[in-house]
């Protein structure tokens, strides 16, 4: 995957770089423990907890974390994983070309209209840059209606509710074709 992706929604370029678990931990700690990030489920995490969590991801061949920048400033977090080995093992039958995804937009007191949609669009475009990726899988909390609407806007189709150890989730899928049809972004 390349380090930069443009924003097809007019927000401006969004770039991605590998996350540094130690250097970025303080920034991430502020994001994941913020009340607006409740669905990230790290509200009570300490700085050390965040460092450990992202060090585990950095060492995991099936899970990856990237820091998203907007105009050079940290603005979002992207994680992607192999659902045959992480997060969804035993909860659905993965297909070749499936990739799981999480994203978190940094909490702000000055939201930019359309920014979160630009982020999810850029994240999806980035995932589909890999020709081996045929379908993106997500499993947000069933009560997170805001992310369900965003997912639908970029082409996700809910399949069913599943029970994970930490939450009741809405298993949803988005193919390359569904993403292109929903967003007009060629992938």
Provide a descriptive summary of the structure in words.
By secondary structure, the chain is α+β, with helices and mostly antiparallel strands. Helices cover 27% and strands 27% of the residues. It contains five helices and eight strands, in the order ββααβββαβαββα. The protein has helices at residues 25-32, 47-58, 115-128, 145-153, 176-183, and strands at residues 4-5, 14-18, 63-70, 73-81, 98-105, 135-138, 157-163, 168-175. It has an eight-stranded mixed β-sheet with strand order 1-2-3-4-5-6-8-7. Helix 1 (25-32) packs across helix 2. Residues 1-8 have low confidence and may be disordered.
Topology readout:
Blueprint: E1 4-5, E2 14-18, H1 25-32, H2 47-58, E3 63-70, E4 73-81, E5 98-105, H3 115-128, E6 135-138, H4 145-153, E7 157-163, E8 168-175, H5 176-183
Parallel strand pairs: 5-6
Antiparallel strand pairs: 1-2, 2-3, 3-4, 4-5, 6-8, 7-8
Helix pairs in contact: 1-2
